[in-house]
């Protein structure tokens, strides 16, 4: 995936989704706020529901804390 780096540069970032069994594309309008906020997980966004359960939206720019991002994407 492309991750926003310093000065609007896009950097490659690979993720491992443990126990992921499928990927889906949904209309953003199907997602709704979960009603729970956690300052420790700013990357977790709204949720949607399908026949197999809940799907959580991840906000990619918030995946890495600043100190980790700075180490990985030094210029």
Task: Describe the protein.
It is a single chain. This protein is mainly beta and 75 residues long. The protein has a domain at 30-75. Helix content is 9%, strand content 25%. It has one helix and four strands. The strands form two sheets. It has a two-stranded antiparallel ribbon with strand order 1-2. Strand 1 and strand 2 form a beta hairpin. It is globular.
Write the layout of secondary structure elements.
Elements: E1 2-4, E2 10-12, E3 44-50, E4 53-58, H1 66-72
Antiparallel strand pairs: 1-2, 3-4
* Tally of DSSP β-strands: 4
Order of helices and strands: EEEEH
Identify low-pLDDT runs.
Answer: none
Distance between the termini: 19 Å
Structural class: mainly beta
Radius of gyration using CA atoms only: 14 Å
How much of the residues is beta strand, in percent? 25-35%
Sum this structure up briefly.
The chain is mainly beta. The protein contains 1 helix and 4 strands.
Q: Keywords for this structure?
A:
single chain; 75 residues; mainly beta; two-stranded antiparallel ribbon; 4 strands
